[in-house]
Amino acid sequence: MERVVRPEDLAPPIGTILHDDLATRFGLEVTPRSGRHDGHLFIFVDRKGMLEAPDRVRFVPDRVRPAETAYVLAALEGGGHRYCGVAHSYEDGLWQMPDVDFATWRLFGQGRSASRELPAGALARAQLAVDALLTVPTLDGRARILGRAERGGLRIDGDEGGFRERTVSLTDLAWVVVADEDVAANGGTLDEARVNRGRYLEGTPKESTRWIDSGWAIIAWKRAKELLAETRPTERKVRRAGRTLDATFRVERVSGGLSVVIESRGGTRGSAAERNIDYAEGFELVLERLGKAGMRIVDAYVDSEATAALAPEERRLALSYPVVIADAAALKKEMSRAQSVIGRRPGAKGSGNATRRVRLLVVGDEESVETLADRLEGR
């Protein structure tokens, strides 16, 4: 092989405005209609609803070719087209591409939101930040922490004579997490402009954003980072009869007591990426040892990235709380059934995933994180 020519190499830069020079700019005989031109697939976005998300377009070609890509162009109100980038097949009839700009989304998108899609894991990290912040009374001396918001965020106010109660949402916090990661990778400053530049589509006017909420979200994340650095727990492996199982857990101190996190099983079976293959055995042992320690489960919910956007009550395992652990094996089966239905789409086939990350909130006589972690590990 002499060299690789990517589809992007044949196209102009994203955002280029094209009028009568389509053929010249792509080096192909292109007419402004969706379909294949000189063997290359083009999608022309020209009607409302074709964009199902800022980075997804709906189009069904006459026949699907494996691994085919498509050039996406959006019509302009005054004539001509804006080049939007290369799209890859996402699922039946849906193609994923770079985010379009605000004006294109308003013309051809569905919904009023001007926000990009959060990267995987951002909401889960934001939830950890909220859990940590609930252990302290204030953010920075000016904002008092009142508790958890309805959909997992943080309720704060300015105490007597200060600002009225408001919510720092989980989404606001998650976008600060994303911006902070960008600062760590590329340098610069974590500020409201940095957060909103990453969060909103190019060209989004300030009045169409939640700019006002970014300031308190930044303050909350900075305080949470300090707390997480001080209390970050060590992951443990469950041990049994001198044998270490491939089953990972950790113990954390949270508002109202202690939290035990059972890490999920994952990876293709038999591959190098497979992890926590002893999930079921380890989970049951942790429950058994919690029961022997006199601990009660006062809440339990799925804590995976896929369910991070759900409200706490939508992620909660359907059990009769508080749970006194008398039969660990029976309780493990009940919790497996309960977690398998959480976050599933109506009509989904199969039994569901019963090996996800689960967080247990426990209370009892154990005061120390380390003491309880040692006991659950089997030391």
Account of the 3D structure:
The strands form 3 sheets. Strands 1, 2, 3, 4, 5, 6, 7 and 8 form an 8-stranded mixed beta sheet that branches. The chain is α+β, with helices and mostly antiparallel strands and 379 residues long. The mean pLDDT is 87. The chain folds into 3 domains: 7-108, no CATH class; 122-231, no CATH class; 236-344 and 351-377, no CATH class. 28% of the residues lie in helices and 23% in strands. A hairpin with an 8-residue loop joins strand 10 and strand 11 (166-168). The chain is globular, with a radius of gyration of 25 Å.
Q: What tags apply to this protein structure?
A:
10 helices; 6-stranded antiparallel beta sheet; 379 residues; alpha+beta; 8-stranded mixed beta sheet; globular
Q: Which geometry do the CA atoms define?
A: globular
What is the CA–CA distance across the termini? 57 Å
Q: Tally the beta strands.
A: 17
Largest beta sheet, briefly? 8 strands, mixed
Helix and strand composition category: alpha+beta
Helix content: 25-40%
H-E string: EHEEEEEEEHHEEEHHHEEEHEHEHEH
Number of helices: 10
Estimate nothing, just give the exact number of structural domains.
Answer: 3
Radius of gyration: 25 Å
Are there runs of 5+ residues with pLDDT below 50, and where?
Answer: none
* Relative strand content: 15-25%
Mean of residue pLDDT? 87
